[in-house]
Specification:
single chain; 0% strand
Length: 194
């Protein structure tokens, strides 16, 4: 049974919220681990699929923006909106027309993502310092940061397979860290006061 969080502040309220949601942390961890295993098993397919999927999404955005611009043709921003739709369309056609080039571009973006997400996970670990198993979040952030640096250093020769493989590894590590966090959250005593 949950303690009334209106009387708790800071760390105690946060720990109560974690304890109450431990099952969600567990479910998220298990799902991320399964998705990571799948991505590692078929890395080239994941890389190409992600590129094509992104191309489709951007193409749909281009069509929607074009329709909206035509519908509001008397608007002062009509030509800028048309230009935006054309740029979206060109980018989408480039991704869909040559997925390998798109994979190379996405690989570089992935390197930046891993570097940035690693930094913020490390920051989260520092903020969560003192929480049971906070080191797993630090581990996850450190792995993300190292993966980002590795991708960056080998780009573009690693582009065909690296997206799927490294996304899979990141999902595994994130899943494991959520699994460990769920164990820690479940063990928080009901009378935790910080």
């Amino acid at each position: 049974m949950a303690v009334d969080s209106t009387n708790l502040t800071g760390k105690a309220a946060s720990m109560e919220a974690m304890r109450d949601a431990w099952g969600w942390f567990l479910a998220m961890g298990i799902i991320l681990i399964i998705l990571g295993i799948v991505a590692i098993g078929v890395p080239i397919a994941v890389s190409v699929t992600m590129t094509v999927f992104l191309g489709i999404i951007i193409f749909i955005a281009a069509v929607v923006q074009l329709i909206q611009a035509i519908a509001a043709h008397r608007w002062n921003g009509f030509f800028i909106h048309i230009l935006g739709a054309v740029i979206y369309g060109i980018f989408a056609i480039a991704l869909l027309g040559d997925p390998s080039r798109g994979v190379r571009a996405l690989t570089l973006l992935l390197a930046m993502y891993f570097l940035i997400s690693g930094f913020f996970k490390i920051l989260l670990a520092v903020i969560s310092h003192g929480t049971s198993n906070w080191g797993w979040i630090l581990f996850s952030g450190t792995v993300n940061f190292i993966l980002g640096a590795l991708i960056w250093s080998q780009w573009p020769s690693n582009s065909d397979w690296v997206i799927g493989l490294l996304v899979g590894i990141e999902l595994l590590i994130s899943g494991w860290s959520m699994l460990m966090l769920s164990i820690a959250a479940k063990s928080v005593p009901a009378d935790f006061t910080g």
